[in-house]
Amino acid sequence: MVKGAIFDLDGVLVDTAKYHYLAWKELALELGFDFTEKDNEQLKGVSRMRSLELLLQIGKISMTEAQKLELADRKNRRYVQMLQALTKADLLEGAEACILQLRQKGVKISLGSASKNAPFILEKLEIRDLFDAVVDGNMVSRAKPDPEVFLTAVQLLALKPEECCVFEDAQAGIDAAKAAGCLAIAVDKAGILMGADMTIHSLSQFQML
Ligand code: B16
Ligand code: MG
After folding, report:
1. Which ligand lies nearest the alpha carbon of 51?
2. pTM of the model as a whole
3. Ligand 1 atom nearest to CA at 75
4. Atom in ligand 1 nearest the alpha carbon of residue 76
5. What is the CATH number of the domain that holds 175?
């Protein structure tokens, strides 16, 4: 019996990936190369600095750490500007109902996101109150596929990893969930994720076992 549910944010509760993509693409164009939606797949679920490293690899550009920090900051300012328009209507299909159903059955809820903007996004979506714990990119030092983000969530919920399920849309997140010892549920419309214990197309398809 599952006692805790940990939700990834981008791609599971809300589609912020499209804004990440637009902001990275703007940066790539400023640097003189194109960045496609296919390239963007590699960035899903990974941290901001790792995303920048991958972007620079695609553009075959090298630079100093200070320059990288400046670029990551510039991309984030643009991304946060785009997030201002976010509202509750941007919640993905079935997201709120799924959390409410789990809560009703006494399951504890945590966020487990790589995003440093997660607290702001939860406020915009008006769902912060549904979470017993929130773990985001500000609280962990090792990015997914490292299990740190999910192990921290498990600890904050005062549960064991095997008592928790993780909803994830990225391969790095599925790998992190398995490494943590949790049940990994892939939210995967395209059917491309590997190694999950269960796959659903969207949260509206999830039924408590
Ligand atoms: P930020 P998740 C991840 O969110 C995104 O999928 C990934 O594309 C992004 O680079 C990462 O957050 C960091 O986001 O720049 O806002 O700190 O899927 O783990 O909820
Ligand atoms: Mg995600």
Report:
1. 1
2. 0.94
3. 15
4. 15
5. 3.40.50.1000
Report mean pLDDT in 10-residue bins for the chain, 209 residues: 96 96 97 95 91 97 97 98 97 96 97 97 98 96 95 98 97 96 95 95 81
CA of 207 to the centre of ligand 1 (A): 27
Whether 129 and 179 share a structural domain: yes
Do residues 54 and 114 share a domain?
no
Distance (Å) from CA 155 to ligand 2 centroid: 21
Q: Are residues 176 and 119 in the same domain?
A: yes
The whole domain housing 48 covers: 17-83
Same domain, 64 and 105: no
Domains held by the chain: number: 2
Q: What is the pLDDT of residue 205?
A: 87
Please give the positions annotated as active site. Answer: 8, 10
Contact between residue 91 and residue 127 where contact means Cβ atoms under 8 Å apart: yes
